[in-house]
Structure formats: structure tokens, C-alpha cells
Design brief:
The protein has four helices and two strands. With about 200 residues, the protein is mostly helical. A two-stranded antiparallel ribbon has the order 1-2.
Amino acid sequence: MTENRRKFIGIGGVAVGLITVAVGIAIAHFTNLPKTDSLDNLVLPDIPRGWQLTTLGQLIAVGGSQMIVAGLAFGWVWDKPLTWVRAGFGALLGWFELVLFFGIIPSEMLNLTQGPLEWTSRTAFTIPEWLVLNNEISISWFTIKDFVVAGYYTNALVFLIVGIYVAQEWIKKRADAAPVIELSTYGRPLRKGNV
């Protein structure tokens, strides 16, 4: 693949990702507006409201952000010689992904469960008394919320560790398959003849 084609695909991925993020943010913002203002006037009555549409908008925005990261990584980092600038840029992309997956997404999950779903004060189910020696034990939605978020963090961490290991093995295989270039004691490639 030529360098210009790679950059064109990268720029296209970034552009489509930016448009997708903008659409997702617009959906999340407008479907989360209150129905009336402080004077009881209707605020944009034709726009549907609800946590389902707000969450859909947020998911669309996350998908767009992943298109941006993939476009940037493919266009300017993937399968290129490693320089300090590329390494720093790749680290910045990695940092963005970690902030997104370990910070923003769990925070929005908690905002959803504590806000519109009101999982903080309701009982989800009660365990039958005959299973717990005639004691009354009930599980609240608050506990389920914490369980879901803890499970998300655990799975994301396992996915991160396995992904790093697989990427390392893949890079090692590619490095082993690359031709060996003899280097001088000064770290420069050896050349034959008068150069």
C-alpha cells in the first residue's frame, strides 16, 4: 500500500469518526434536555426524550471516537519505522483509549444507573427465606450496579493484559522474520566496498 493511500484512508477514518462523534453528541445532548424550562415553557417539544436515546447517542459517540483512533493509528503509526515522534503519538493514542475505557465509560455507566434508572434506592429482588435459613435478605439495584461496574473493570483489565501480550507476540514474530542487518560497533549498518 502506498504512503498516500494510507494517509488518505487515515484522514477518511478521522473525518468519518468526527462526523459520527458530532452526531452522537448531538443525539445525547438534545435527548437529555429537560422538557420544560424554569418558567414551565416547553423546550424543543418535537425532540423525543429518554435515557435510551441518550445512551444510544453516547454509544454512537464512543464508536466515532474509535474510528478516529483507528484512522490516526492506521494513517500515521501502523507498520511504519518507529521514531520518537511516532512512539509519542502512539502513546498519546494509547493514553486516550485508557482514559476512555477506564474512566469515561464507567463514569457514564454510573451516571446512568444513579440518575435516570434510579438504581440507588430500589430493591431488585429478595432471596427466598427457605434458602437463607428463614432470614430476610434482599439485593438492591445499588449492589447490582456496583457488581456490573466491577465486572466491567475486571473484564477490561483482562482484555488489556491479553491484548498487550498478543500484540507483543505478533511484533516479536514480525521482528524475527525481518532480515538481519549487520551493525558496526557504532550502531550503523555495515556496507561493503568504498562508500
